[in-house]
Amino acid sequence: TTSLRTASGALVRLGMSSEEARKELGQAARARTSAPGSDGKKVGRKEVLTYRGEDGLYAVTLSGGQVVKIVVTPKRD
Description:
Blueprint: E1 3-5, E2 11-13, H1 18-25, E3 30-33, E4 46-53, E5 56-63, E6 66-74
Antiparallel strand pairs: 1-2, 3-4, 4-5, 5-6
C-alpha cells in the first residue's frame, strides 16, 4: 500500500521522512534493522518497524531517511 492511517488520524505515506513517520507512528511493536553497507556507512541500511492495528499488522520500511515501503497483513479470524 502507499499509505496508512494511524490511530490518532495522522497519515503515514511513502516518501515522507523517517523522522516524521516515527513521530506519527509512535513506539513500534517490533523493529528490525539490516546491517550497514560493507563500508560501514548507513547507505543501504533498512529498518522495518512493525505496528499492530485493529485490522492487522503494518510493516513500515525506512531507508535513506524516508518511508520506502508499507506492507499490511490483514488480521484473520
